[in-house]
Model the fold of this input.
Amino acid sequence: MLTAVALAGLGLAQGTITLVGAGATFPYPLMAKYGDEYTRLTGGKVRINYQSIGSGGGIRQFLEQTVHFGASDAPLDDPRMKQVREQFKTNALNIGYALGAVVPAYNLPGVKEPLRFSGPVLADIYLGKIKTWNDPALQELNPGVKLPPLPITVVHRSDGSGTTYVWTDYLSKVSPEWAQKVGRGTSVQWPVGVGGKGNEGVAGVVKQTPGAIGYVEVTYAKQNNLAYGAVRNKAGRFILADLASIRAAANVPLPGDMRVSLTDTPAPDGYPIASFTYLLLYENLSVNKAVKSEEEARALVEFVKWILTDGQKHNEPLTYGALSPVAQQRALALLSRVTYGGKPIGKEIVGR
Amino acid sequence: MRRLYSHFGDRLFAFFLLLLALGVVALALLMAYELYRGGSLALGRFGLLGFALGREWDPVVQKAFGAWPYILGTFIVSFSALFLSFFPALAAAIFAAEYAPRWLAQIINFLLDLMAAVPSVVYGLWGIFVLAPWLRDKVQLPLYMWAAEHLPGLLPLLGVPTGYGLMTAVLILASMIVPYTAALARDAIALVPKEHREAAYALGATRWEVMRLAILPLARGGIIAGAFLALARAVGETMAVTMVIGNSHKLPYTLFGGAATMPSVIANEFTEAVEDLHLSALIAVGFLLFLVSMLVNSTAAYVLRRQERLVKGVL
Done:
């Protein structure tokens, strides 16, 4: 045992495999947990080295094949999928393994109960069309609440982020004007508002400014005791983001490749501003220069399978949404398509 | 034999020195080249001038990239910060070097050095949680209310008083660069030969006249060098500015409203810039920042050289 530890420490132990991944910062705590647990589970044989350099960097490292897997808050878009097909003669797989939700957090002195928002109202606030808290549109959604005549200070992320992508993706779906003027992206041209750097920057400005509204990851809002509102979903219900309603958001018919936006979900009890966060794999792992041997390829598939099955139990304690049964099925089906050197190792490992 | 050996050693040493020195130069050139190459996609699309003067930065709908709001923001913020900090810093330096008793001077010097050592993220946090709310409640809101009543023409210049914007960034940055100006000015004043002071006193000059006529003219080079060092630091400062400036690139900028600088947009958008053109535009902003820094430094070098010649003339 002692020698094994010593050897592993030197990196000389026979059969020690390090899987390298890079990408989104949002799932970093979860990835770190997965890595620790999985290394313990395999008795130190498989180590995970995840670098949270941002989704943009993750996609780039994935395409440059310096990593075993990439990670991104948004799936690869059509041009990137086409690029992979043409350049490497294989498909890229976008495997969703956890869900995140974005909530409208606010600072309204004297208002105790959670406010209710609707998509169009949020879009109008962020377009600068609704300027005060006692606007009729807001009052109509919150009949029992005495809203103060405070001006609304709009706060957004200044750094590019998956959180911004999810938020603007939702606003684009519920407001044609937003879709046309601003659109969806990790950084957009904001019509109004103050930009805070990172979740902590947005939360800081919201906390310090009476009348401010900002969007943050639900995890962050909970940890920092920010008040956040319920949002009306497609079915017309006001849903407060929690683990159950986030999981329910993905309980809808999903396309085979999982490249889907879950915002404005049709699920009746689903929270409307939720999204998958993705692992990126090559379908034919032999083309990935970072994968040096079949052994490594198998270890990678085993690891992803573990994330999608047993590993899911680590999601909710860290306030990430776990996969719904439909989503888990889709993800495993995608993983089973993986091959290495012509061998269907995905089918073999997933089917076992 | 021994002589030949040492001769060889000398030459070897000189050779290595040359190699290392050239390495530094090569590094700077390589950096400029890499930045240019990385930004060439955006620079090629919009042209160097078109990119530098473009006012739109929209990675999503128009996919247009222009750095003008960031260049303007950088210049406004750093020159205002320098202007605000210069005289207090100079006063602190003169006081510490000439007027203060030794124990007090030591305390001042220690605190100045400490100010330079505080990480910029700490200044930024202090800005978010203390300075910005205070400025909003005690300065911006009263001023805004007063203007709304008495001078409505001023309102478009003031902008929305949220606390997070140009004014806060300038104040934070000004306090961050005080120690640079002050430390160099202090050393420059201390280096002025004693004979000059004594000569001036012997002529019957008062303390202030000695300072004005005998010391400051000779120390001017060091003082200016300190100011330029502070300016270079201000141009490149990223973290603290990004945290309090409000990060809006909508022109025209207002006194209270949000703004953005070149380092802040790079820090903000680099990690998640997925599209090639977006990434390239950010690197191109880095290239422009490199050019601006070079401009500041070469101006500093020019002013210093002229000053040195002047001082030599006096001596």
